[in-house]
Write a structure and sequence with these properties.
The structure holds 2 protein chains of 2 kinds. Chain A contains 2 helices and 3 strands; from the N terminus they run ββαβα. Chain A is α+β, with helices and mostly antiparallel strands. Chain B has helices spanning 13-25, 29-43, 56-75, 77-81, 90-115, 121-129, 146-167, 173-201, 205-224, 236-241, 249-267, 292-302, 306-319, 321-342; strands at 277-279, 284-286. The N and C termini of chain B lie far apart (48 Å). Classes of the chains: A alpha+beta, B mainly alpha. The interface between A and B is medium-sized, with 26 and 30 residues.
Amino acid sequence: MNAPALKEWPLWEVFVRSKQGLEHKHCGSLHASDAQHALQMARDVYTRRQEGVSIWVVPSSAIAASEPNDKAEFFEPASDKIYRHPTFYDIPEEVGHM
Amino acid sequence: MYTQSFSVPDGSDDAKSVGLKTVSINLSAQEIALQAQFDARIDADGRIEPREWMPEAYRKTLVRQISQHAHSEIVGMLPEGNWISRAPSLKRKAILIAKVQDEGGHGLYLYSAAETLGTSRDQLLGALHSGKAKYSSIFNYPTLNWADVGVIGWLVDGAAIMNQIPLCRCSYGPYARAMVRVCKEESFHQRQGYEALLVMMQGNQAQKDMVQDAVNRWWWKCLAMFGPPDDKSPNSAQGMRWGIKRISNDDLRQKFIDATVPQANVLGISLPDPELKWNEARGHYDHGQIDWDEFWSTVNGNGPCNKERLGARVKAWNDGAWVREAALAHATKQQQRQLKEAA
């Protein structure tokens, strides 16, 4: 099985944890030859001012994404289930905060 | 650093965009529906994300503007990089290295944003190296002495900030997000430049004269960075309609002048425009005429450093070819190994 020949360094998506206790957040992408190279590049490109304490790099080709054109159908089922929100329920005022 | 709402036509773009307009007359019913959806999103000040449908002209305009912006960041490293080995102290050298590295970073954020529109990095760089793609003309002027480095930070980066802040609200998500990151870093660039000039202004007369001379040489070029006057900027209306551009060239230029005059007073230098004066009725400073012939002559390749700048980029690209090829060979080997393991 042969993959199509690479013309450019592969593309990686970069996720940075800004501080301990927070989640990794997507912050951009870059080209690098392998994972270690991508991590070093990500450090130089995205964390020059201590913006991160941890970095993930993921080959862009490994990300499966929902189709933007199917957004309506894909997410629609949730929109008519408003009873999933606390504001759906009327609670007497004297109960106070609930 | 950079600017510009300035999205000047690249080399052979015109012919193609004419073609696009004729195609768009024959839209299918499906395309009309998609276009309506897109327009509604833009009207509601919503954002467009990479894999969503967008009009071809919108995509093309963004690729052109974002790539010109990226090229400007990269070429913009050259005039200042020239002074790294000649900075007057270790402190100034460290600051300048950090600033030039930021510009490289800004270029990379922007190339990534442009690539989300379906154009490869090699295509983008190829257009720069062949001379087809433009970059901000401000970098086609020489940095003659150390005061130029301070003035670039204060005025060129100051003008760029004016331009980039509204771009943080651009309708195309990846471009807007890259701009938020850039703007956070740009403030350091302007402040370090202004502070370097403040220090020079406490020096001897020759040093003060250097600052004034540098300001004299850069002032008008910085005003031109905001692009042609509104009545001579035919693409502006479309850019505004698409939410790519938020404030007109002339309005941004005025904001920059109004913000800069008090800074010049604190610094103790004059701005080289005899017509520059406060207009009480308008609540703004009036200013003299910009030499647009010089601006266009530089855009069209005849500035003092056009050849040198492009030559330096092409040489760096060619000299680095063996590194890119070696890393690519490594990447290919890794890919083959992973495929074998997966099989």
